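Risk register update: the risk of archive-format incompatibility is retired. Evidence:
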Amino acid sequence: MLTHQGTRPHKCKVCNKAFTQTSHLKRHMMQHSEVKPYNCRICGRGFAYPSELKVHESKHESGRENICVECGLDFPTLAQLKRHLTAHRGPIQYNCNECDKTFQYPSQLQNHMMKHKDIRPYICSECGMEFVQPHHLKQHSLTHKVSYRHYCLNMSSADLA
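Archived output:
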């Protein structure tokens, strides 16, 4: 009768969603709890309701493998899924043990650590200057080009203003 009248007296204290029956509110509250008794047999993600589990497992069966364990979205590649996970968990920080710098990717931290270890594998064939990154050597090599050097040597401070 309450459904036909539009009356929903049972309100969720977490999200304010209202229900006509106490049993519907109790079932809804499972979404807000840590209790997820229905687990995916493939990836282990837990669900509050068997219907949610069934929908999720059908994604695995259809060949969609890169599924977010937080929200159920699927992605064409693992890299895209990992990028998406930062929206739920926040970016992972990779910290340098030598200084207080942090990095978003482990490769960035590895490159940075080369500076602390004074590893500079990229050497200029013109002057012997050493660089950690290949793109730094490439940028530096432009200074050895005749036209670039001529331009810089002949430029006055008035030209820069």
